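User: Show me a protein chain along with its predicted structure.
Assistant: Here is one chain, sequence first, then C-alpha cells.
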Amino acid sequence: EGTDTGTPSKVYFAATMNVPFLVSNILSGVGMLAMLASTALRSRRKILAVQSVNHALSMAACSLLRGWSGAVQEAVNLVRDLAILQFGKLNRFWQISFVAAALGLGAAVTFAGGFRWYGLLPVLATALYSAVIVHPRCNTRWIKASTAVCTMMWAVYSLFIRNYVYVLTNVITSASAVLFLLRSRKQGETV
C-alpha cells in the first residue's frame, strides 16, 4: 500500500551503481590477460605491444572506479610504450620526460584529489617501470623484473579502488614474471 513508483527500488539502484564496478573488473581482466601473456614473450617490442593493450583497458577501468591516479599513470604508460614502439630508442630528453610525467602528473592528481597514500603506488610503479623501459640497455630480463615489482604495487592500489580482478591478475602476473626470470636464469638464457 502506498508504493512510490517514481522512486527506483533499492535493487535497481544497487544494480545500476554496480555497473561501473562490473565493467571495470571485466576490462581489467581482459587487459591483465595481455599483461600476463607479455611475461612469456622474449622480445622487448612484443612485450610493449601486448602491454599497451593492458594500459588502454586499465586506464578505462581505473576511470570507471574513479581511481584517477591509476588512470593517469596508465595513460603515461600507454603513451610511453607507443612512443618506444614508434621511434625505437628514445633520446635522453624523452627518457627523462616520461619518468617526470609519471612523477609530476601522478603527484598532482594524487594530491589534488585529497591525498591518499595508496594513490602514490601507481605513480611509483610507473616511474620505476618508465626508468627501466626507456633505459638504452634495457633487456627483457629488466622488463620482467620490473614487471614483477610494479604489478605488486598495482595490486595493492587496486585493493583500495575495489578492482578485485586487477588485484588477482597483478599477483598472478608478478608471480609469472618471477617464474620466467628464474626459468631463463636456470636455462642460462640471456633474454
